[in-house]
């Protein structure tokens, strides 16, 4: 086997895979397994773990060839948490055994993952979390409550952070685990939101036993491990390439063009301003993508989520007004449990309500602005009175 | 185009190595010769701009000829490179007739397909920095106003013409076509006005019995004037980006150092959020400005939309950045000796130059079929 680290080599390997497993006559699952084993799942991962140790940018070469041949993909939207957050963390901190056990079924979508991070008392101040993990022989016994857990009701595994030493300051007493969602101590309850849907869950953990072999990284280093997960979360939000008028602005523009009777001067001014801002946000995302491909990642990613959250909220708000009578109606208040968030194909009222979460999930806009100010602009940090205080002594 | 799936032209929004080299050359020249005290002093002198600095920039670095092909006496580069020069000129609020002569007038002449004659000679002089020329239209004229500009005769008064006071040649659009009129000739009066932006002189130009060389008939002249204004508007976005960048950088620097209430004022969340928001706007303005420059360089069919988007967006960002700069500098920001006011004045004037954001919104509405009620 030759080292496949340039575009031609990746292309050759992809063509070999397609020749050995023609998509037309190969089952979906079988093809995906063959693709993983050929190192073409995520080419920047090590050989044997679905990759080739090639530069990350070369994945696009394989993806393009596979798409052109009509090969099935591994539905990254449904398994987004596993692919985007669990996998890079396991790769970075897992033992060889953990990598061998978890990465293949994760990529294939055979095992869905969820993330047990946020708690009712620890949202943006995530490191304040209170879920306890107490050592008992070869196991850890976990008790606590998590919230905002998407996919928990379909997940096989969860990445979990829990407090293992309340006597240390809050960032230092946390450890990182892989939690088996089929454990009898795990209870998943739907959490109904302002849209009427239960897209997220509450997860109650009662005496859940996690073997120490399912710990990721050293005891007490869980916060550091979680940074890998969270960094990848922010990269995955707003990093995709979108066409002009892609996203919500396209829906409003279409309504504007098709319904002259709905137009007012006030809405026209706002529509044009937002159209320009949406186009600029699209270009900013495209510039960020080009920087990544060129191997010059910039700090722009941390700002993109801020921009998209505000735009989604303003555009969907304008859309409700534009629709007039129709804007007074709502599609369906029945509680449902969607596996993925899908803004398109839903009504304006849903978009308006759901987009309110965009400035909260994955870090509130206020917290992200602080992060930009301190890490990108180098402004002085907020005064901290929790830094050297044991977690158990913090005010709650 | 009710359905607009994707831009046909795939833009390159990054800076090339050659562009970064050009930036370094321009920046070191400006750092050495046009720092803030020098710029403030220049605005109070009788000369609109530093001739030696202009010579170094225009012919020393060769910036004046970037848009002009080598066979016509230029550097054979393009809009992407010229945009980088403008970013630096914006960052220093440098008084120089770059945008007006090396971009707008040069683009007008290039559109006339000049291989010789008066247009070709003038173009070669502009590219070499031997002469400067300005389009004799109000500075606020948007690209969409090019056809309306082709009216009237050679006898006229045009007010708020940018950089006319030091220009050698005026390009005058008339109903008969485009004329080149030397400012030194008889029948030409160039009356300096008192501008809001002291770093870009404005003048009132009166032509009465002036002699001019006809460069093009009205039809091709209108196309040429439109191209000049479009490039001016598109590359002005890069100047605005430079202004906004300086304002943000300087505000961050100041608020880290300035202490009040026993803390650096930059540690207050109310201020941090405003600067972080500004950073996001600057990052976005860069993408918009690069897209406009790249579309102009490629002659992309959607260049007019890319320019309108960049102008509508970057004008507001530059003004916002300059206003925040003044406010977050506190009392210091209101003083004459601190350069913040130069940036505010340039940013506000630039937001009107080659069309206000509102004018560019009208262009966006037309090009995307999003009509007013």
UniProtKB/TrEMBL annotation, chain A:
A GO term from the CC aspect: plasma membrane
Record-linked Pfam families: Acyl-CoA_dh_1, Acyl-CoA_dh_M, Acyl-CoA_dh_N
Cofactor needs: FAD
Molecular function GO labels: flavin adenine dinucleotide binding; oxidoreductase activity, acting on the CH-CH group of donors
Tagged with keyword Transcription: no
Keyword Flavoprotein among record annotations: yes
Annotated keywords: FAD, Flavoprotein, Oxidoreductase
InterPro entries per UniProt: Acyl-CoA_Oxase/DH_mid-dom, Acyl-CoA_Oxase/DH_mid-dom_sf, AcylCo_DH-like_C, AcylCo_DH/oxidase_C, AcylCoA_DH/ox_N, AcylCoA_DH/ox_N_sf, AcylCoA_DH/oxidase_NM_dom_sf, Mycobact_Acyl-CoA_DH
Domain Acyl-CoA oxidase/dehydrogenase middle, residue spans: 114-198
Domain Acyl-CoA dehydrogenase/oxidase C-terminal: start-end pairs: 220-377
Location of the Acyl-CoA dehydrogenase/oxidase N-terminal domain: 29-110
Similarity comment text for this entry: Belongs to the acyl-CoA dehydrogenase family.
Record-given protein name: Acyl-CoA dehydrogenase
Taxon lineage: Bacteria, Bacillati, Actinomycetota, Actinomycetes, Kitasatosporales
UniProtKB/TrEMBL annotation, chain B:
Acyl-CoA dehydrogenase/oxidase N-terminal domain span: 16-105
Chain coiled-coil ranges: none
Gene Ontology terms for molecular function: acyl-CoA dehydrogenase activity; flavin adenine dinucleotide binding
Residue stretches making up the Acyl-CoA dehydrogenase/oxidase C-terminal domain: 228-366
UniProt similarity note: Belongs to the acyl-CoA dehydrogenase family.
SUPFAM superfamilies: Acyl-CoA dehydrogenase C-terminal domain-like, Acyl-CoA dehydrogenase NM domain-like
Organism: Streptomyces nitrosporeus
Database matches in InterPro entries: AcylCo_DH-like_C, AcylCo_DH/oxidase_C, AcylCoA_DH/ox_N, AcylCoA_DH/ox_N_sf, AcylCoA_DH/oxidase_NM_dom_sf
The protein's name: Acyl-CoA dehydrogenase
Keywords for this protein: FAD, Flavoprotein, Oxidoreductase
Signal sequence range: none
Cofactors (names): FAD
């Amino acid at each position: 086997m030759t080292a496949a680290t340039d575009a031609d080599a990746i292309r050759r390997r992809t063509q070999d895979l397609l020749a050995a497993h023609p998509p037309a006559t190969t089952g979906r699952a079988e093809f995906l397994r063959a693709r993983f084993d050929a190192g073409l799942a995520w080419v920047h991962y090590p050989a044997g773990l679905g990759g080739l140790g090639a530069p990350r940018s070369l994945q696009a070469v394989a993806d393009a060839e596979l798409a052109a041949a009509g090969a099935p993909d591994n539905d990254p939207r449904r398994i987004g948490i596993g692919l985007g957050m669990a996998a890079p963390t396991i790769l970075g901190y897992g033992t060889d055994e953990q990598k061998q056990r978890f990465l293949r079924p994760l990529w294939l979508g055979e095992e869905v993952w969820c993330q047990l991070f946020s708690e009712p008392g620890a949202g943006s101040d995530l490191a304040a979390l209170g879920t306890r993990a107490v050592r008992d022989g070869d196991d850890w016994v976990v008790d606590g409550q998590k919230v905002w857990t998407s996919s928990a009701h379909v997940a096989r595994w969860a990445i979990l952070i829990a407090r293992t030493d309340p006597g240390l300051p809050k960032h230092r007493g946390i450890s990182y685990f892989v939690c088996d969602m089929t454990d009898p101590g795990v209870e998943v309850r739907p959490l109904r939101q302002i849209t009427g849907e239960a897209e997220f869950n509450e997860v109650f953990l009662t005496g859940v036993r996690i073997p120490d072999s399912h710990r990721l990284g050293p005891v007490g280093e869980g916060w550091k491990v979680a940074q890998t997960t969270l960094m990848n979360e922010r990269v995955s939000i707003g990093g995709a390439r979108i066409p002009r008028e892609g996203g919500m602005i396209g829906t409003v523009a279409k309504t504007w063009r098709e319904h002259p009777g709905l137009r007012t001067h006030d809405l026209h001014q706002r529509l044009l301003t937002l159209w320009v801002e949406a186009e600029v946000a699209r270009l900013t995302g495209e510039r960020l993508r080009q920087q990544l491909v060129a191997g010059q990642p910039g700090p722009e990613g941390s700002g993109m989520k801020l921009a998209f959250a505000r735009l989604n909220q303003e555009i969907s708000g304008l859309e409700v007004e534009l629709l007039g009578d129709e804007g007074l109606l709502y599609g369906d208040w029945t509680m449902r449990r969607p596996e993925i968030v899908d803004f398109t194909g839903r009504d304006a009222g849903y978009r308006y309500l759901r987009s309110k979460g965009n400035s909260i999930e994955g870090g509130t806009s206020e917290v992200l602005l602080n992060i930009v100010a301190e890490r990108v602009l180098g402004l002085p940090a907020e005064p901290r009175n929790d830094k050297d205080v044991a977690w158990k002594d913090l005010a709650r | 185009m009710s359905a607009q799936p994707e831009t046909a032209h795939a833009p390159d929004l990054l800076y090339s190595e050659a562009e970064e080299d050009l930036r370094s050359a321009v920046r070191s020249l400006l750092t050495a010769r046009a720092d803030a005290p020098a710029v403030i002093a220049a605005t109070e002198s009788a000369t609109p701009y530093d001739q030696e600095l202009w010579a170094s920039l225009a012919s020393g670095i060769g910036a004046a000829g970037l848009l002009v092909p080598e066979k016509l006496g230029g550097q054979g580069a393009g809009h992407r490179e010229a945009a980088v020069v403008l970013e630096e000129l914006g960052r220093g609020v440098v008084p120089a007739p770059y945008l007006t002569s090396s971009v707008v007038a040069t683009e007008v002449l290039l559109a006339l397909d000049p291989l010789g004659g008066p247009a070709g000679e003038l173009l070669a002089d502009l590219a070499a920095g031997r002469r400067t020329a300005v389009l004799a239209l109000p500075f606020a004229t948007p690209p969409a106003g090019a056809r309306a500009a082709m009216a009237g005769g050679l006898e006229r008064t045009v007010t708020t013409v940018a950089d006319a006071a030091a220009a050698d040649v005026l390009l005058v659009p008339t109903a008969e076509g485009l004329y080149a009129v030397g400012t030194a000739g008889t029948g030409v009066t160039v009356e300096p006005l008192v501008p809001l932006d002291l770093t870009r002189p404005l003048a009132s130009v009166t032509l009465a019995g002036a002699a001019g060389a006809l460069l093009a008939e009205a039809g091709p002249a209108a196309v040429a004037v439109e191209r000049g204004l479009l490039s001016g508007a598109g590359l002005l976005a890069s100047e605005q980006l430079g202004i906004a960048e300086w304002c943000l950088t300087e505000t961050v620097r100041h608020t880290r150092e300035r202490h009040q209430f026993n803390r650096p004022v930059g540690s207050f969340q109310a201020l941090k959020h405003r600067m972080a928001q500004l950073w996001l706007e600057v990052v976005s303005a860069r993408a918009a400005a690069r897209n406009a420059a790249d579309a102009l360089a490629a002659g992309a069919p959607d260049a007019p939309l890319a320019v309108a988007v960049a102008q509508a967006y970057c004008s507001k960002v530059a003004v916002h950045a300059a206003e925040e700069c003044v406010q977050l500098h506190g009392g210091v920001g209101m003083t004459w000796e601190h350069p913040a006011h130069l940036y505010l004045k340039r940013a506000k004037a630039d937001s009107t130059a080659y069309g206000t954001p509102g004018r560019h919104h009208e262009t966006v509405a037309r090009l995307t079929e999003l009509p007013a009620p």
